[in-house]
Design goal:
By secondary structure, the protein is an alpha/beta fold. It is 41% helix and 19% strand. It is built from 12 helices and 10 strands. The chain is elongated and about 60 Å long.
Length: 299
């Protein structure tokens, strides 16, 4: 009896081993490697850098399996690099609709359409490490920023729509209150820095204050003052580049940005999402899956 039991147990072991081998390697018993999905290359406005490199990229990868590879910079700079073919990417995210005219309908590069997915007002950000901290807590920014020794930073209006907006709003405020000293902070280039460097300079104490979008201030825990009725801000758009080498990954990223999961992240970080998504450009080039998301968005 023991002899027959042993034979039966050996037989069962052989069958189980064979099943295990087939489930791993198929009929030939070799292990089949799973091909990873290619990374999606995203050129995006640097005001979104921390948010995209952390919450958005992690959520996107978890939901789709695609990896995120980002390149942050001023929106106008990115558009110029795309137009000159110095920058190749799958997705372009701008902080201003006017910037998109540099790359819209410029096949075989550029974009065929774009979709607005959020907006964020301009604010004046400052640090508690500044010697002007107590003044900024009790006075409007425009009364403190002209104090002797105040180090204020802004971005380049040639490379970044936030720089254009800063110049416009500061000049408007200077005119309203009749203060030429305020106007002087947006003349010359002594306080102009790359968008991707401005937050770091404030946090390291190199600046006392600067002009940021609310999205940056909330995400980076920067103290700020609202610019009230003066403040327009970023209008964030997403588009797929016509020469993308990873169209499926690009589409997955666009659809993720328009998803309710991403909208919740944006709303929690100083970005107001639209009640419905509008398409600018050639609607015929928008995928069916994206159109479905747009059609189902709240109205």
């Amino acid at each position: 009896m023991k002899k027959y039991s042993l034979i039966i147990l050996v037989g069962i072991s052989i069958v189980l081993a064979a099943c295990s081998t087939n489930s791993i390697g198929g009929n030939n018993g070799s292990k089949q490697a799973v091909t990873p999905k290619p990374a999606v290359n995203v050129a995006y406005a640097a005001s979104l850098e921390n948010l995209f490199d952390n919450q958005i990229s992690k959520g996107f990868t978890a939901q789709t399996g695609y990896k995120f590879r980002g390149y942050a910079g001023g929106s106008s700079l990115l558009a110029n690099e795309i137009e000159s073919k110095d920058l190749k990417a799958d997705i372009f995210i701008s902080a201003g609709t006017s910037v998109n005219s540099l790359v819209l309908n410029k096949a075989p590069i550029g974009i065929d359409y774009y979709i607005i997915f959020g907006s964020s007002p301009l604010v004046f950000g400052y640090t508690s490490n500044s010697k002007f901290y107590s003044q900024l807590k009790s006075k409007p920014w425009y009364k403190v920023v002209t104090e002797p020794g105040f180090r204020v930073g802004r971005t380049d209006p040639v490379l970044d729509p936030k720089g254009v907006l800063t110049v416009s709003l500061v000049k408007k405020e200077a005119s309203l209150i009749g203060d030429p000293a305020l106007d002087s902070i947006v003349t010359g280039n002594g306080n102009v820095f790359p968008e991707q460097d401005l937050v770091g300079r404030l946090e390291s104490g190199q600046l006392d204050g600067g002009f940021f979008y609310l999205a940056e201030a909330v995400d980076q825990h920067i103290l700020y003052q609202s610019m009230a009725n003066l403040s327009n801000g970023a209008v964030y758009t997403v588009s797929i580049l016509t020469n993308s080498t990873n169209k499926q990954g690009a589409l997955a990223f666009m659809n993720y940005l328009l998803s309710s999961a991403a909208q919740k992240v944006f709303n929690a970080n100083g970005i107001e999402t639209p009640t419905s998504f509008a398409i600018t450009g050639n609607r015929a080039d928008v995928s069916a899956s994206t159109l479905k998301i747009i059609a189902s968005s709240k109205s």
